[in-house]
UniProtKB/TrEMBL annotation:
Entry keywords, A to Z: Metal-binding, Oxidoreductase
Protein origin, superkingdom: Eukaryota
SMART domains named in the record: malic, Malic_M
Cofactor details (free text): Divalent metal cations. Prefers magnesium or manganese.
CDD domains per the UniProt record, alphabetical: NAD_bind_1_malic_enz
Record-level GO cellular component terms: chloroplast
Domain Malic enzyme NAD-binding: residue ranges: 371-624
GO molecular function per UniProt: malate dehydrogenase (decarboxylating) (NADP+) activity; metal ion binding; NAD binding
Keyword Transport: no
Designated name of the protein: Malic enzyme
SUPFAM superfamilies with a match to the protein in the record: Aminoacid dehydrogenase-like, N-terminal domain, NAD(P)-binding Rossmann-fold domains
Known cofactor(s): Mn(2+); Mg(2+)
Binding site for (S)-malate: R256, N511, N555
Amino acid sequence: MPSPRTVGSHAILLLSRCGRQLGDVASRRSLYSAAPIADLAAQSLSAGFRDIGCSRRQRKLSAMDTQLRGLQISTPDVLDLKNTPTVGGGVGDTFGEDAATEDQTLTPWTRIVASGSELLRDPRYNKGLAFTEEERDRHYLRGLLPPTIISQELQVERVLQNVRSYKNPLEKYIALMDLQERNERLFYKVLMEHVEELLPIVYTPVVGEACQKYGNIFRRPHGLYISLKDRGNVLDLLKNWPEKNVEVIVVTDGERILGLGDLGLHGMGIPVGKLALYTALGGIRPSSTLPIAIDVGTNNETLLKDPFYIGLRQKRATGKEYDALLDEFMNACKQAYGEKVLVQFEDFANHNAFRLLQKYATTHLVFNDDIQGTAAVALAGLVAALPITGGTLADHKFLFLGAGEAGTGIAEIIALEVSKQGKTSVEEARKAISLVDSKGLVTKSRYESLQEHKRPYAHDLPPAQDLLSAVKALKPTVLIGTSGKGGTFTREVLEEISSYQDKPIIMALSNPTSQSECTAEEAYKYTKGKCVFASGSPFGPVTYEGKTYVVGQSNNCYIFPGIGLGCIISGAIRVHDDMFLAAAEALAKQINEDHLAKNQLYPAFSEIREISAHIGAAVAAKAYELGLATRLPQPKDLFAYAKSCMYSPNYRKYR
Ligand SMILES: O=C([O-])CC(=O)C(=O)O
Ligand SMILES: [Mg+2]
């Protein structure tokens, strides 16, 4: 019986002869593993290569099948690595490599050194024209590259020029995603060095459009897809992922993508984008990040009829079926990657988001970005605004339009912070906060029919049908929009709030830009330059009556990369609400006199890596304080330690 290594080399040899398309599909994995190569070869055999446009290779494939059989690993055997979803051989041996008992199957992952065309097709190691003379000699690259050698810096310039030449933002998105698949370090270097320009493309708002058209622009799969069909085999799917040291997972079920609603499996763009930011903004190694989309169907009729839709064509599963898949998934994450893998829930619909967070918060290292990340970033903005508006948080009166994850998440963190600062309880602090949902003001008279997360805000107030009447009745000093509906902070609403309040705080947090409750310009114009404004989507500076205001982006991407970094460097085993308070405080501290002079509530993204390190250090410090950290002893200087752990996108030398 040949060793897996031998099988791997044979398969690589065969695959490399199979032409570019297959090589493209296989290359990333082929460099690490024998079985998946044989696996791919076998899959391709049965698919007759039609999907990847390689049908003329079929004769060679039959030959490959024969060869694989000659190696006594028949293709069905290779395909049939049916693992029961249990932990492997011994404690900490999830993949069953060292101590697997004989009746347990294992995935024979192995590493080999990449060279030649395989090296050029591996996005993690490819450097394109930046390979040095020496590397070209040592790694069999001669002739595979034109003779020119250029620096990574020049490559960055070239990429930027190309991206800028596209007029359509979606084309820019596609170009950047292609780069990520081709040359990962170059992608991150470009993104990190031009973060303000490129963030709106790989992230909100353009990622929203990309998700809407995900089926049309589909090229290569990103991340891991888990569907209802995989019930009972979720751990096996995780074992197919080519990385074992996963530290951060972002998962969505696609039911509430940004403010765009149910986009089903096309929501995959969000975990992919968020994790790109974990690396670019928070310095988390890309190989330790895993984007996951869970497919339980979609209720989006347009997608169900769309021939290019990539997900299951069925209505969303709910109840026990849904819960069982999620439960299997959550357990499989810990089985595969251990207690300290961070799972970020993203863009789940309200009816699942709150209960999933509650269900898993005590058993897993989890948080919900839309509830807690958004809450922390909004709190940071409010704290930063206090020197402009005067007073403390407890002096303000808050009105929300939108009572979903973001709205009640922010409301809760405000109440928590006020209660920590003053002598009031959280219950008392909630009294200064009111919510308007699609049925009007949330009041006590509606209590019975309210969803649980809104009930703490059902105050004893007269009813109000809409936002404007609620503003008139309650006279809030802070107006926060998390409704997912564009244009809802109307001229009347903005004029009303500025009629009685000197410096109202207006936060229009819905995403993408089309769903923003108002634009930055509208906010300044209709409040006659009185307001302090922030938004969830990016807006350029606004000049009103000769004064220029810089619009801070109150987006959770300031917070989640630092939360991840803090959890990883401290080895945290649970996420605690106080870590979000610490993160918000660390972010608010970044605002100085210069920012305040321009009404800017959030620092520039160009400083984000430093900011993430501060947030990471604050989060880690809190984890140590709460006894939730396992990485001991605690580093003396957590900020320096956080910085030292951050991924650099610069090319490494290959020996
Ligand atoms: O992705 C963003 O820009 C913020 C966010 O989490 C959401 O809107 O769901
Ligand atoms: Mg989100």
